[in-house]
Design a protein that fits this description.
alpha/beta; Rossmann fold; six-stranded parallel beta sheet; two-stranded antiparallel sheet; 6 helices; 8 strands; 17% strand; globular
Length: 183
């Protein structure tokens, strides 16, 4: 499973939320878990000359990103909400590739204020649909996330832990079912 930190903003809460989720996913035991921080991936704004469905990548950063996404059997996007949608860095990272996402399950750990980032989770579904990326309804939504921040760590609630377990269980089932379809 590839956990993608979807925010690149300085001071972001996505890193502590991602660390919490990665620990939960590793404890779950159903996946080999790796982390991709989009701030470190450093993907320029769509600088490939060819359509991603051709997989004729010219840039090393695209090849590295393609390898990470191809190797994953499932994805969890850790995302805030920006103006009722997903952030530009995540949209760019998703759009860089095409077939690498196909026939794999994904979900979100969304966070924010009162809406818990749920509108960004809904916005991600449109791009996922176009890529045959199977978004699951099981998710972790964290409202008022700043109130849970303790010394750069997240003090998870029981509801978050329960939701993470349900999501990971479902991701495991769907990843197994979809594995023969990977392109």
């Amino acid at each position: 499973m590839l956990v993608v930190v979807g925010s690149t903003r300085p001071g972001r809460i996505g890193l502590p939320v991602s660390r919490w989720f990665v620990d939960r996913a590793k404890a779950h035991g159903g996946f080999r878990v790796s982390l991709a921080d989009l701030a470190e991936e450093n993907l320029p704004l769509l600088d490939e000359p060819n359509h991603p469905r051709l997989r004729d990548y010219r840039n090393d950063h695209t090849r590295r990103w393609s390898e990470k996404v191809s190797a994953a059997d499932a994805f969890v996007f850790v995302i805030p909400e920006y103006n009722y949608g997903i952030g530009a860095a995540l949209k760019n990272a998703v759009d860089y590739l095409h077939g690498e996402w196909a026939y794999k399950p994904a979900s979100v750990v969304s966070y924010g204020g009162v809406s818990a980032g749920t509108r960004s989770a809904l916005a991600l579904q449109t791009s996922a649909y176009a890529l045959n990326l199977f978004m699951l309804r099981e998710a972790v939504n964290i409202p008022f996330v700043r109130a849970l921040l303790r010394d750069d760590d997240i003090d998870a609630t029981d509801a978050m832990t329960t939701a993470a377990t349900a999501m990971l269980d479902e991701l495991g089932k769907v990843a197994t079912a979809l594995r023969p379809l990977h392109v």
